[in-house]
Amino acid sequence: MDCLFCKFINKELKTDIVYEDENMLIFKDIAPQAKRHYLMVVKSHFKYLADMTENDSIMLARALKKLPELTELLGLEGGYRLVINQGDDAGQTVPHVHVHILCGQKMGWTPA
Ligand code: 5GP
Ligand code: ZN
Fold this sequence. Notes:
- There is one protein chain.
- The chain is an alpha+beta fold.
- The chain has a single domain (4-103), classed as HIT-like (HIT family, subunit A), CATH 3.30.428.
- 18% of the residues lie in helices and 23% in strands.
- It contains 3 helices and 5 strands; from the N terminus they run αβββααββ.
- The chain has a 5-stranded antiparallel beta sheet with strand order 1-2-3-5-4, with helices on one face.
- The longest helix is centred in the middle third of the chain and has 10 residues, at 57-66.
- Guanosine-5'-monophosphate binds next to β2.
- Guanosine-5'-monophosphate (5GP) binds at residues 4, 15, 27-31, 39, 85, 91-94.
């Protein structure tokens, strides 16, 4: 599978991992768009949310539900923003569903 994030998950490529469990991986974004910027991926390959069955989506729900437990580790105390880009208009560049976790600063809201 020629997918960058699958290669991080399978440890074929190194990245800056901050949390991992049997279901998901959280690592630092290489080009941060906020003071702290992480990417959360589930450990199965789906390009789009639309490719997931209801059963598959449980993995994503489980990953999201875990976030409050990681408040201290990720520095989420002040609040955080989650973004999932889907498709070209949204600017999705990596074809493996991922949740951007942005935090560590006040953020504006000016979508194009
Ligand atoms: P997208 O644009 O698909 O929503 O998000 C892809 C994200 O992956 C971008 O924020 C980009 O900076 C990040 N990214 C791309 N290549 C790498 C890489 O090699 N390592 C890491 N850690 N992040 C990457
Ligand atoms: Zn993948």
